[in-house]
Automatic annotation (TrEMBL):
Protein family: Belongs to the peptidase M16 family.
S-adenosyl-L-methionine is among the record's keywords: no
Source organism per UniProt: Candidatus Egerieousia excrementavium
Protein name: Insulinase family protein
Gene3D superfamilies cross-referenced by the UniProt entry: Metalloenzyme, LuxS/M16 peptidase-like
Domain Peptidase M16 C-terminal: 208-391, 704-875
InterPro entries: Metalloenz_LuxS/M16, Pept_M16_N, Pept_M16_Zn_BS, Peptidase_M16, Peptidase_M16_C
Domain of life: Bacteria
UniProt keyword terms in alphabetical order: Hydrolase, Metal-binding, Metalloprotease, Protease, Signal, Zinc
GO molecular function terms attached to this record: metal ion binding; metalloendopeptidase activity
Length: 942
């Protein structure tokens, strides 16, 4: 595995002597000078950065460079268990003190107060904390201080938490989790990583000695393995002093235990993992070529960046080739991809993955490996390299232009990567300049990329992972079958790929007739309205929240409510997206593969939508790509590409997936619950193995043309870094050229399905690998859409979250979490509250009764005053956070124009006025008065 790393470094360093005026590959990349970085005498590292996006908010993290890999056999699962205990009592925040305090300032458990345990490191985060006063900053740092060294780990609390952890294990033990375990065993064969389970065995979680958890904490949670990260609207120098004062009090570890040095053995012969499971939805084969990781000291140099660029170029070119194959009707596989990745800090790899129809894994894998071998033998060509280069430079350019709008949580990840992996943290503007210089001056070349890749696809250190459904009639390939593929391809005759340059424009813009702007006026919420001669209205709000983002949404009334029942299933939004210009559909005369080449280097998504009440096109782009995005939007109306042969490719992939999803318990539950709550309405069918048989490209085309051939009455909402004067001529050209007849559509209320009335309770049994009961409860009733009702629904969601965490999760130990959501629908004039959770089948009846009792009790007695106050505070806290999002403002104006509903004005005043116990009781009582309760309990087959 060392050979590839040595070649990477040698290939990169050689050209350095020819470009002395640039950043030499052996010189370090400049660190972001706006970051305060330091290390205390006790070994603790800290990173601090001021960022006012959003204002008066900050993220506080403590990252411990320790994970499940440090566990002893007796500590199996305890790194993750410890994460839970950090929220169950510390020196300065006994009991549930951390959660209680954070909720009192508007933070929400799970959303703003959370943690994550990995194999190699553990992170604790306080996200989007309102730093409106100095005391909140002090308390947030004190919480991190306690996480670091002063978690109580009370034995009684440990025993109480066992049930929660076991329920989390039950919920997480899906087919995907079991695939992950099988992959770890193969990729890391011969090392401790191969058996690192992360969440632990059921036996150990039930029976471990609490002292083992204390021992793990005392051994590994120590300053020299920890970093404090604070990013947000804070005085960085002041926070540094606070960190120095507070965290210097934590003593350095005496005789600190060294981490074991773990390596992954090389393998001369391929390691082949054959894994089948009844709940796996799709057959896949992955091939990995293992290599040693790039050392941290190299990552921070110019050569580290060049290595990354070479890998990114390779991945982009290979994925273009694979897409060219799988979008063809006669493709040997359903989908495929390739990339460089690091499964752990001790291992790098290049991998290719292919997804096939059941029973066709071997020919699919052979086709994938043939493409890897083709690239290894002959390399890539200049046209491919130019497109990939353009794409990557554009990515770095977009990152630079959007740097000032980065959110705290994005920035934090840079410092975690630096602390754990040695990745450099640099300014995006500086990095873009270096990248451009390297490309412009020949430090990253096609020859270099080809040379590196030819040494990546080797005959050794290969791991092959086969994952497939376990079902009757499906034969499982053998290990030898896959090895035979390798031998066959290596001995086969393969020809190099021909060049495929594409230079044609999307359309003849000179031929567009256009329509002039006849009106321009100011609207609510800072929008400007432009009215075209053809009647199309455009609402524009320039913002600088994200300087690299412009959102475009067109909308007409109608959507699915205008379609006949036989067309509906062919317009499921997942299909509409896959059939779109940003999916498999292409546009005009250009098939998808050609279009993607034409759009290389452009940052655009463009997807039509067909929802219950409305239809239109949603696009996301950047200022420099705005015109191209408008061209694609225009063509989505005037020249959609609906070619049956091409669109049958993604349709067949969906059919293949759905055939196996019928064995996935979570999918079965969603389908059955949807059927129950909508009373089996034919207008609310969702895709499954039965309904997909009624899907056809022809019906999709019929529906699409019915809805999109006429843009009369169209409303357009554009929000982002857009200049109105620049937009005006483009709007006149593209929106002004859309076909209009004057026949304005509106949605048909009688065709909009609502929640079913009355009471219904169903129990069903399903075969499943991990026995669990899944519960779904829906309460619904008549209610008008209003700002007050919307706010009360949001407050109820918060209140139920807190109620169920206390009762069902903490007191009963009955579930990992209850999902509760309340809302009011404008279309159906209905209020709904949906409650869903997993649990132990033996506890199901008791917990269903408790969940209903807790909800219904609010109607009679209200809830705890503390919960009401916390819900009110959380809503007020979240309101300004939403306002730095382009999508928020697009939604506000959309609601106002389409429904006449103002969700913005007087929001805080309404929260303060209406969120109280009396109104919460009335809100729930009104829902219950309708008498509509739908309940589904899905049990494992006995």
């Amino acid at each position: 595995m060392k050979k590839l790393l040595s070649l990477l470094i040698l290939t990169v360093v050689c050209p350095a002597f020819m470009f002395g005026q640039l950043l030499s590959p052996v010189e370090p990349l400049q660190k972001d000078s706006t970051v305060i970085y330091g290390k205390l005498d006790n070994g603790l590292t800290y990173y601090i950065k001021h960022n006012d996006k959003p204002a008066q908010r900050a993220d506080f993290y403590i990252v411990t460079n320790v994970g499940a890999i440090q566990e002893t056999p007796a500590q199996d699962g305890l790194a993750h268990f410890l994460e839970h205990m950090c929220l169950n009592g510390t020196k300065n925040f006994p009991g549930k003190g951390i959660i209680s305090y954070m909720e009192s300032i508007g933070a929400k458990f799970g959303e703003n107060i959370n943690a994550s345990t990995g194999v190699e490191h553990t992170s604790y985060m306080l996200n989007n904390i309102p730093v409106t006063r100095e005391g909140i900053i002090d308390s947030s740092l004190l919480i991190l201080h306690d996480y670091s060294a002063y978690v109580t780990n009370d034995f009684d609390e440990i025993d109480k938490e066992r049930g929660v952890i076991l329920e989390e294990k039950r919920t997480r033990n899906t087919a995907q989790w079991r695939i992950r375990d099988a992959a770890m065993a193969a990729l890391f064969k011969g090392s401790k990583y191969a058996t690192c389970s992360l969440i632990g065995s059921e036996e150990n979680l039930k029976n471990f000695d609490p002292q083992e958890l204390v021992n793990f904490y005392k051994t590994w949670y120590r300053p020299d393995l920890q970093a404090i990260i604070v990013v947000g609207d804070v005085d960085a120098k002041s926070v540094e002093k606070k960190i120095q004062t507070l965290f210097s009090q934590i003593p350095a570890a005496e005789n600190p235990k060294a981490k074991d040095i773990i390596t992954v053995p090389s393998n001369e012969k391929p390691i082949v993992s054959i894994f089948t499971d009844k709940e796996i939805p799709q057959t896949s084969v992955e091939i990995y070529f293992k290599s040693e990781p790039v050392p941290a000291e190299i990552k921070g140099l110019g050569m580290g960046l060049i290595i990354d660029l070479s890998k990114d170029l390779t991945s982009a070119m290979l994925n273009e080739r694979l897409q060219d194959i799988y979008t063809k009707p006669d493709a040997p596989f359903l989908a495929a991809g390739a990339a460089f990745m690091s499964p752990a800090t001790i291992l790098d790899s290049f991998y290719g993955a292919v997804y096939s129809k059941d029973g066709e894994a071997i020919p699919a894998f052979e086709a994938l490996y043939t493409e890897l071998e083709r690239a290894r033998r002959f390399g890539f060509n200049a046209d491919e390299f130019d497109r990939a280069k353009t794409q990557i430079i554009s990515l770095y350019e977009n990152n630079a232009s959007g740097e000032s709008g980065r959110r705290n949580e994005e920035i934090v990840q840079d410092y975690i990567s630096n602390f754990i992996e040695g990745e450099p943290y640099t300014s995006a503007t500086y990095l873009y300049k270096v990248v451009k210089d390297y490309f412009d001056n020949g430090l990253v070349t096609l020859d270099m990329v080809n040379q590196i890749f030819s040494s990546t696809v080797t005959d050794t250190n290969i791991v092959i992972l086969y994952n497939a459904p376990q079902k009757e009639g499906l034969a499982t390939p053998t290990e030898q079958d896959f090895i035979d593929v390798l031998d066959r391809v290596k001995a086969s005759d393969i020809t190099p790929l021909a060049s495929s340059e594409v230079m044609e424009p999307l359309l003849d813009t000179a031929a567009l007739k256009g329509a002039a702007i006849t009106e321009s006026d100011s609207q609510k919420f800072g929008f400007t309205r432009l009215v075209l001669e053809n009647g199309i209205e455009i609402y524009v709000k320039p913002t600088t929240f994200k300087e690299d983002e412009i959102l475009i949404k067109t909308q007409a009334g109608g959507g699915k409510s205008l379609l006949s029942e036989d067309l509906l299933i062919s317009c499921d939004q997942s299909l509409v997206s896959m059939f779109s210009v940003s999916g498999y559909g292409g546009i005009s005369k250009f098939p998808a593969t050609t279009l993607q080449k034409m759009l290389s280097g452009k940052n655009i998504t463009c997807v039509p939508y067909i929802r219950q009440l409305a239809h239109g096109v949603e696009a996301t782009t950047t200022p420099k790509d705005l015109e191209t995005a408008l061209q694609l939007t225009y063509l989505s109306y005037t020249a959609p590409r609906i070619e049956e042969q091409e669109l049958n490719v993604p349709l067949n992939m969906i059919k293949s997936l759905l055939a196996n999803y019928s064995a996935d318990p979570n999918f079965i539950f969603r389908q059955k619950f949807n059927t129950l709550i909508y009373g089996n309405s034919p207008r609310m069918q969702t895709l499954d193995s039965a309904t997909v048989k009624n899907v056809s490209v022809a019906k999709y085309g019929e529906a699409y043309r019915q809805l999109f051939s006429d843009a009369s009455g169209l409303k357009v909402y554009i929000v982002g870094n857009v200049n109105i004067d620049t937009l005006k001529p483009l709007a006149e050209k593209y929106f002004g050229s859309l076909p209009v007849s004057g026949n304005i559509t509106a949605y048909r209320l009688e065709n909009i399905p609502g929640y079913a009335e009355g009471k219904a309770a169903e129990e069903t049994e399903v075969n499943m690998s991990t026995p669990k009961t899944t519960v779904g409860i829906l309460y619904s009733g008549k209610m008008e859409k209003s700002l007050e009702n919307d706010i009360l629904a949001s407050a109820l969601t918060h209140i139920l979250d807190m109620t169920y965490v206390k009762s069902i999760r903490e007191e009963e130990g009955g579930t990992y979490g209850v999902s509760a959501m309340s809302g009011v629908s404008e279309a159906t004039r209905q209020v709904s509250t949906v409650i869903v959770f997993d649990t132990d089948p033996a506890k199901a009846d008791e917990l269903v009764a408790l969940a209903k009792k807790e909800y219904e009790a609010i109607a009679e007695n209200g809830t705890e005053e503390e919960y009401v106050e916390k819900a009110r505070t959380a809503l007020i806290k979240a309101f300004p956070e939403k306002q730095i999002s382009n999508s928020y403002w697009q939604g506000v104006m959309n609601d106002y124009i389409f429904y006449g509903y103002d969700s913005y004005s007087n929001y805080v005043e309404t929260v303060e006025k209406c969120v109280n116990n009396k109104n919460m009781a009335k809100f729930v009582k009104k829902t219950l008065k309708s008498g509509n309760v739908r309940e589904l309990v899905m049990n494992p087959t006995k």
